[in-house]
Structure formats: C-alpha cells, structure tokens
C-alpha cells in the first residue's frame, strides 16, 4: 500500500479531508514570520507537503527527507515537476545549519524514546540559529482518542489501536504503555500504531531542545486539544544552541 492510499486517497472522505487540512494547518503555522529560503520536510512521506509549499513559496529550495525506500520513490514521482528540490534517504547527507524552516508531521508518534531524542538532536543540527520547526503529532488521549478508537474498531476490531481496553485507557488520559515495537528499516525502531502516544509528555521533551512559539490544532484551532485530532508545535532553535 502506498503512502497516499491510507492518507490523501483513503477510502473514507473524512480522513481524506483531515489529511488535507493538516497540510493547511502546518503551512500556515510555518509562515508566521519570514519567508524561508531553505525548507526541509523531515519524514516527507509522498512529498505532498513540499508540493503544496512550492506553490506558495516558488523560489524556496526544498529538502525532502524520507528514509523509507517505497515512500522515497513515491515522493520523487510526486515532486518531479517541483524545481529546486533535493531528495535524501540519509539525513546525515544534509548540510548542518542549512535549513531556515523544517516541518516534521506524523513522525514522532511512531518513534521510541531513543529515536525521539536522536531525531530532535538531528533537527536542531539542521536548523540555522533562530531557524524554525513545525512539529505535528496526533492527539491520542481524551475525546479524540475515543472517536479515533471507535473509527479504528470499525476497520480492525481487536487490533492494538482498536482494542476496547486500550481505547478506554486513552480516553481517560492514561494511554497504554505496552506499545508494539518493531523496525521500519533495519536498526530503526518504530511504533506502528498511534495508540499509546501522549502529546503531553512529548511537549515536555520538546522544551529541552527548542523555544516554543505557538501551539495550534487541526483541522480547527479554537476547540484545542480537547476535541481536535492533531496538535502542532511551532518552535525556534535558540540562537545560542550548538550547530
């Protein structure tokens, strides 16, 4: 199954709409201050974010990083008409301190603790001093966990993220801690289900790396994380941070 098959081209129209809205929410949050010259999508999937950004900021240089070989090829195909785009499967090949604005959407909910800290250190190193990063993750506690869990149960009842007990624990704000752990690529740890991820704990981790500028939610901002399924953190690399 391709990346777009379960995101932008999912058979459920509500899910397709939510996927498009998260792009709108992220790009708006990332263009609050200045026009970036170099933009990186960290974990780009099929490259749709770079494609949309290229229409809004046509003169920018885009760095599309996607470690999955299948998604990497999908991104190259999707972005073949977008100029000034570089593709990387190895993030170490991207020059440090070269990025003005970085997006990382729907990545950190999958990463175990070690991989989370490794990725945050890498992102900090890629950014210029004062560079900005927009990180988007799902809300998997409270009311959003309940309606997501019900939706998942209609598709795969009994799976880890569609288990009534796990859905209930997430709904009451104590998500399960026994998340299935595997590898998306050899040596790269990965949690496949979203269930068990807690954005509240993740926000505390972010504070150790970046200065928080703004928190927003998608598809709408006003209701906040009480009802909305996605939360976005707009952050800035401190000027005195090491490259």
Beta-sheet strand percentage?
15-25%
Largest sheet: 7 strands, mixed
Name the strands of the widest sheet in spatial order.
3-2-1-4-5-9-8
- Rounded mean pLDDT is 89
User: Regions with pLDDT < 50 over 5+ consecutive residues?
Assistant: 1-6
Rg calculated over all Cα atoms: 17 Å
Molecular shape: globular
Residues in helices, as a percent range: 25-40%
User: What is the structural class?
Assistant: alpha/beta
Q: What is the number of helical segments per DSSP (H or I, 4+ residues)? A: 7
Oligomer: single chain
SSE pattern: HEHEHEEHEHHEEHEE
Terminal CA distance: 38 Å
Annotation, overall tally of beta strands: 9
Question: What is this structure's SSE topology?
Answer:
Layout: H1 13-29, E1 38-42, H2 48-56, E2 61-65, H3 69-78, E3 85-88, E4 99-105, H4 113-126, E5 127-138, H5 142-156, H6 164-171, E6 182-185, E7 188-190, H7 199-206, E8 211-218, E9 230-236
Helix pairs in contact: 5-6
Explain the overall architecture.
The protein is α/β, with parallel strands linked by helices. Helices cover 33% and strands 23% of the residues. The protein is built from 7 helices and 9 strands. The strands form 2 sheets. The protein has a 7-stranded mixed β-sheet, with helices on both faces. The chain has a two-stranded antiparallel ribbon with strand order 6-7. Strand 4 (99-105), helix 4 and strand 5 form a beta-alpha-beta unit. Helix 5 packs antiparallel against helix 6. The model is unreliable at 1-6 (pLDDT under 50).
